[in-house]
Every structure is written in structure tokens, then in C-alpha cells.
């Protein structure tokens, strides 16, 4: 980053080779003067700022949980009031780096945060002008100090995001792909070594069963062998599918039709588990995708949602078209995901389900498929309240295709 052109007297080192204009003691004085005014309007301004963030697609998911929203508001209130205090030492810079990390962890990209920051700027300028209109010269000086302070923060924010954001994300995506490739190799080997003898065992047990009189004491034991070997065979074939996924076969897909199809398949499962279904579907434009694979994503996520509500609950499915993507949301009122589990749910074989109930492969398969569709998955979960998975699939330019699905 280049050194900012400024007429300020002092500069302070900010990061790698660039410097920032420092605030003068007079600036600090003008800013301090704004304390009571900001205090009186902080709640309204922060509400507006959070609404601004929530207006944006990813912001909605991030701030949906009431606790996160409350925490974020507190965090922003503190920030707003800190505008009236000094900010010229190194701790301030370090603090901003950490803040960048927190915002990135929350999933707020610089684009969303910075565009909402423009709201702060405009609102504060309006507030100061209205409050000090009787003394235009003084008002001008206060505004200049506020402007300098906010521009300083903007630069620090960009620096903080640049230092934390992109590299962290790229790394985790690569790590995830590596993990999946390693598991894939292992699974292929296992499936071959175990699959064949397993088929022989279950075939023989079935053959013996056919010859036994129904009241033989062996029937029970042999049935257990058949049942259990079939379960392991199923697991092996899931593993194989995971290890050697067919490349996606792209065509035009009507996502609403796909969702209806999957929901009618799972109706019985929902009824059995006392799950109330609520759908909110917009008319969606077709997207380019592999219908079977996308169906798999839906089935996995909806089944997970149903199983997260063992005592019944509410399943909300919605689909809408954003400017450059389709956003599919699957929300449940189930037990939620513990924060320490959240970073692991897309790992192959990670499961919290009882032995025999979960393979831990569902979400890693979803991850791979959505990734191959150049999309992304977002998760928001509160323990004891529920979970929302969002699948964001990019809209392509479809002019050259004909809708066939
Ligand atoms: P599996 O369902 O076989 O356990 P997945 O990869 O589909 O494997 O899911 C991994 C884990 O993620 C689950 O065991 C569960 O702990 C968690 N999980 C996924 N979806 C939900 C959900 N909707 N609610 C709560 N936990 C979930």
C-alpha cells in the first residue's frame, strides 16, 4: 500500500511499509466533544448499521441468531463510542488487526463491512451538521477531525482484513481438499479389501438361511449376520462413492422442481419424526448443475435437519434468487451444533451420531459437490435453538442453453 497523500504533521507506522496520518491534539479535543452526542444516538446508529449489514446476503445468515446479533451490536456500540477517544498508539493498530480477525471469523467480508461503514460516515456527518449548525466554522473543524479519524480506521480495517482474510480462507479450502483426497485413497483400498469377502459372507449366510426350518435356533444368528454384513456393505458403497465421485454432468437444472421432488421423497421420514415443514419458494431461474448431485446435497442436509429434531420440530426450506446466485436455505429447530464441533462438521468421518447411525460422510460429500458447482455452504447454529445451512449456487449466463430440466 502506498503512503497516503496528506497534509498532516505526523505519521504513525501502520503495517508493512506504509504510514498513517496521526490525529493532532486539537483533533482529539474536537472528537472528545462529540461524546455526549454519540452516546445519545448510539443505539439508533448501531441498529441502522446492523440492518445495513443484514441487508446483504451473507450478513443475513451471520446475524440471524439473536445472540450473535446482540454481541455484534455491543461490539459496534463500543466502536462508535471509541471514535471520541484517542487512537494513536501501536495497541490501536494491533486491536484493529484482531478486530479484522473477528469480523472475518464471523464471515463478514471487507466488501460487506466497508459498504456498511459508509452508512456510519454519512449518518455521523449528518448528526454533527445538525447539532453544530449554529457555528459553521466550529462545525467544519469537528467534521474534519471526524473525517480524519474515520479515514484512519478505514485504512486500518482494510489492512486488518488483508492481513487475515484471504490467505486464511484459501488455506482452509486447500486443507479440506487434501484431507478428502487422502480419505478417498484409503477408502478405495478398504472397499476392495473388505467388500469382496463381505459379499461372500452375506451370500453364504443367506444361502444357509434358505435351507433352515423357520423354528431353528440358527435363524436368529444367521439373520444378524445377514443384516450386519449388509449394513457394512452399504457403508462400503457409500465410501466408494465418496472416494471415486463421478464428475458432475452439467445441465440446466430447475432447483424448485428438484426441491419439491426431494421433499416428497422425505415426507414419510418427516411425518415419522413429527417434523412440520414450511416452504418459501420463489420462482427461480434455471442454473447449470448436476441434478443428481444437487439432489444428494438436499437429501443429506434435510435428513440431517430431521435427525437433529428427534422430538419433532419445524423444518423451513426456502429458495430465492439473488443478483448473481441462487440461495437455498435449510433451517431446523433442532439441537444445534456445539461451537467446538462447527469447524469439523465438513471433515470426512466426523459424526456425533451413535454408532451405526451416521457415517460422517454426508456433509463432506455436500461440500465437494457444492464446491464443484463453484458455490459455497454457510452454517449458522445455536445450541438448543437450531441450525441453518445455506447453499449459495452461482447463476451462470445461460443464454446459449435451452432449458431441458
Ligand atoms: P452424519 O450425518 O453421518 O453424522 P454428516 O457429515 O452429514 O454426517 O454430518 C456431520 C455432523 O454434523 C453430524 O453428525 C452432526 O453432528 C452435525 N450436523 C449436521 N447437520 C446438522 C444439523 N442440521 N443439526 C445439528 N447437527 C448437524
Describe this structure in words.
With 405 residues, this protein is an alpha+beta fold. Helices cover 59% and strands 13% of the residues. It has eleven helices and nine strands. Strands 4-6-7-9-8 form a five-stranded mixed sheet. The protein has a two-stranded antiparallel sheet with strand order 1-2. Strand 6 and strand 7 form a beta hairpin. The two termini are 49 Å apart. The structure holds adenosine-5'-diphosphate. Adenosine-5'-diphosphate binds next to helix 10 and helix 11.
Short description, anyone?
Helix content is 59%, strand content 13%. The chain has 405 residues and is of the alpha+beta class.
Major sheet: arrangement of strands: 4-6-7-9-8
Q: How many strands in all?
A: 9
Structural class category = alpha+beta
Which residue ranges are poorly predicted, with pLDDT under 50 across at least 5 consecutive positions?
1-18, 165-171, 399-405
- Name the helicity range: 55-70%
Radius of gyration: 28 Å
Shape: elongated
**Small molecules held by this entry:** adenosine-5'-diphosphate
Number of helices: 11
The main pleated sheet reads as: 5 strands, mixed
What fraction of residues sit in β-strands?
Answer: 5-15%
The termini sit apart by 49 Å
Amino acid at each position: 500500500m502506498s503512503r497516503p497523500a496528506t497534509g498532516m504533521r505526523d505519521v504513525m507506522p501502520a503495517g508493512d511499509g506504509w504510514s498513517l496520518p496521526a490525529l493532532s491534539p486539537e483533533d482529539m479535543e474536537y472528537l472528545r466533544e462529540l461524546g455526549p452526542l454519540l452516546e445519545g444516538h448510539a443505539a439508533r446508529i448501531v441498529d441502522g448499521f446492523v440492518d445495513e449489514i443484514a441487508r446483504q446476503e451473507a450478513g443475513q445468515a451471520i446475524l440471524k441468531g439473536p445472540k450473535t446479533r446482540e454481541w455484534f451490536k455491543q461490539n459496534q456500540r463500543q466502536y462508535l463510542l471509541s471514535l471520541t477517544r484517542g487512537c494513536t498508539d501501536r495497541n490501536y493498530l494491533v486491536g484493529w488487526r484482531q478486530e479484522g480477525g473477528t469480523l472475518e471469523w464471523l464471515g463478514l467480508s471487507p466488501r460487506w463491512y466497508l459498504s456498511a461503514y459508509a452508512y456510519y460516515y454519512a449518518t455521523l456527518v449528518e448528526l454533527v451538521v445538525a447539532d453544530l449548525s449554529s457555528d459553521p466554522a466550529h462545525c467544519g473543524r469537528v467534521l474534519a477531525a471526524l473525517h480524519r479519524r474515520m479515514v484512519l480506521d478505514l485504512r486500518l480495517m482494510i489492512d486488518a482484513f488483508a492481513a487475515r482474510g484471504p490467505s486464511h480462507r484459501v488455506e482452509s479450502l486447500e486443507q479440506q481438499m487434501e484431507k478428502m483426497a487422502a480419505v478417498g485413497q484409503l477408502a478405495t483400498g478398504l472397499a476392495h479389501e473388505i467388500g469382496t469377502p463381505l459379499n461372500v459372507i452375506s451370500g453364504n449366510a443367506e444361502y444357509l438361511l434358505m435351507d433352515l426350518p423357520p423354528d431353528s435356533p440358527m435363524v436368529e444368528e444367521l439373520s444378524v449376520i445377514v443384516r450386519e454384513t449388509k449394513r457394512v456393505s452399504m457403508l462400503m458403497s457409500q465410501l466408494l462413492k465418496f472416494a471415486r465421485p463421478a464428475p458432475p454432468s452439467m445441465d440446466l437444472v430447475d432447483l424448485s422442481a428438484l426441491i419439491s421432488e426431494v421433499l416428497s421423497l422425505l415426507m414419510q421420514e418427516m411425518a415419522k419424526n413429527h417434523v412440520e415443514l414450511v416452504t418459501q419458494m420463489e420462482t427461480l431461474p434455471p442454473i447449470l448443475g448436476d441434478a443428481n448431485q444437487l439432489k444428494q446435497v438436499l437429501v443429506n442436509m434435510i435428513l440431517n435437519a430431521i435427525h437433529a429434531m428427534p422430538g419433532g420440530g419445524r423444518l423451513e426450506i426456502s429458495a430465492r434468487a439473488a443478483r448473481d446466485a441462487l440461495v437455498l436455505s435449510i433451517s431446523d429447530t433442532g439441537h444445534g451444533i456445539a461451537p467446538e464441533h462447527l469447524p469439523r462438521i465438513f471433515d470426512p468421518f466426523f459424526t456425533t451420531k451413535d454408532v451405526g447411525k451416521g457415517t460422517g460422510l454426508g456433509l463432506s460429500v455436500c461440500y465437494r459437490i457444492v464446491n464443484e458447482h463453484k458455490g459455497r455452504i454457510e452454517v449458522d447454529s445455536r445450541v438448543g435453538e437450531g441450525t441453518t445451512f445455506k447453499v449459495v449456487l452461482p447463476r451462470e449466463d445461460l443464454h446459449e442453453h435451452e432449458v431441458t430440466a
